[in-house]
Amino acid sequence: MWQFRVWFWLLLFVLALLIQTALLPQIFPTPDIPDFVLPLTVIIALYETPRRGLLAGLLGGLLQDLWAGRLWGLNAVSFALLGYLVAWTAGHVARDPIFVPGLLAGLGQLVILPFQWVLLRLSGYDFSWIPFMHTLPEWILFSMFMAPALGGILRFRPRHEVENRYTSGY
């Protein structure tokens, strides 16, 4: 049942932010550092209800906004919507532990970055499209590989499997 606790999500998001800011800059060039919180949001929301997926996305996005110290709410709103949509979609698709998380994380990245660009433009920031989107292919691939890996490492399971395991006694 640990995977369904909000305090555990908080710990995972803080670890993801530490990895994103301390480890990934050593691997990727500076402007192209991928988002590590997005695949984690997808993998948490994949095994949750839409309301809890929204909460997970809001928590991860808000922590990322607070960590970065800029534009509070941009990632919180984007990731909350992503968490809700992933959790809602999870009830309508088959539960494959590799393909589905990777596909949803890649699609999430494909939707989130243009959505954030539009929000920034509406807020009065003047970013041109090409420099803002030049990292999109790398980030999509990173998310597509990282979400299933995180799901396997964390051994996330659907709620009904976890509850059946605890009620059956093993």
Written account of the structure:
By secondary structure, the chain is mainly alpha-helical. The chain has one domain. It contains eight helices and no strands. It has helices at 6-27, 37-46, 50-68, 74-90, 99-122, 129-133, 136-154, 159-168. Helix 1 runs antiparallel to helix 2 (37-46), helix 2 crosses helix 7 and helix 3 (50-68) packs antiparallel against helix 4. It starts with 5 loop residues before the first helix and ends with a helix. The model has no long low-confidence stretch (mean pLDDT 87).
Annotate the secondary structure layout:
Layout: H1 6-27, H2 37-46, H3 50-68, H4 74-90, H5 99-122, H6 129-133, H7 136-154, H8 159-168
Radius of gyration from CA coordinates: 16 Å
Low-confidence stretches: none
Helix content: over 70%
Strand content: under 5%
Sheet of most strands: none
Distance between the termini: 13 Å
Judging from the principal axes of the Cα atoms, what is the shape? globular
What's the tally of helices? 8
How many individual β-strands?
Answer: 0
Q: Name the structural class.
A: mainly alpha
Mean pLDDT: 87
- Summed up, the domain count is 1
| H-E string | HHHHHHHH
Characteristics of this structure?
transmembrane, cell shape, membrane, mainly alpha, 0% strand, transmembrane helix, 170 residues, Rod shape-determining protein MreD
How would you summarize this macromolecular structure in one to three sentences?
This protein has 170 residues and is mainly alpha-helical. The chain is 74% helix and 0% strand. It is found in: Cell membrane.
